[in-house]
Write a structure and sequence with these properties.
The protein is built from three helices and twelve strands; from the N terminus they run H-H-E-E-E-E-E-E-E-E-E-H-E-E-E. The protein is of the alpha+beta class. It is elongated and about 80 Å long. It starts with a helix and ends in a 6-residue tail after the last strand.
């Protein structure tokens, strides 16, 4: 009996060690931080909780990054999905976001920081599920849905107090597309 108990205990310890080395943790934030793509110096900006897991928006000196943590085996969490954005000094910038879809998990998240005092609110989303949120300067404004929405259908826009469009999220108007050119542009003729 004692030998059987020691064998079971040994198996549990080995299982926990390999689980830990495999990125499994006891909470979603720890799992997200264990994701190999999340820089060690990252700072949590925001999070969105779903029934199946959580999405974490981080910033670091290297890059802004979004990590998805999933609940596994009832007690454990693991993070295997992430996306990153480019740093820029624009007055309106996207600091995180992800859109993904599988059998049991669907999510779209976009997080924006506004440093332009003329911007009062943001609108994001397709026509039937469009969301509007007020801005607090320098703080993330996060929009989320429990469905997949492709980035070009999100149509993010920034408005001033009078309701006039002053920024839009898109690629630069040019003959070629670079991923780092997907950002916020002022809505004024002749600027890009």
């Amino acid at each position: 009996m004692k030998k059987k108990l020691i064998s079971i205990l040994f198996f549990i310890i080995v299982f926990l060690i390999f689980g830990y080395l495999g990125g499994y943790r006891l909470d979603g934030l720890s799992a997200a931080r264990a994701n190999s793509f999340v820089p060690q110096d990252s700072i949590l900006l925001d999070q969105v909780n779903y029934e199946w897991g959580s999405i974490y928006i981080f910033d670091s000196q290297e890059k802004p990054i979004t990590a998805v943590s999933n609940k596994k085996f009832g007690l454990f969490w693991v993070s295997r999905i992430s996306s990153y954005y480019f740093h820029n000094e624009d007055p309106v910038k996207t600091v995180g976001g992800i859109s993904f879809n599988n059998e049991r998990e669907k999510a779209t998240v976009i997080s924006i920081i506004v440093n332009d005092p003329k911007v009062v609110y943001l609108e994001v989303g397709p026509e039937l599920s469009r969301q509007s949120k007020e801005v607090k300067l320098g703080e993330p404004v996060t929009f989320y849905w429990e469905e997949i929405i492709y980035w070009n259908d999100l149509d993010p826009r920034a408005f001033n107090r009078e309701g006039e469009l002053i920024y839009e999220y898109r690629f630069a108007k040019s003959n070629y597309i670079r991923i780092e050119d997907l950002k916020w542009y002022p809505v004024i003729e002749g600027t890009d």
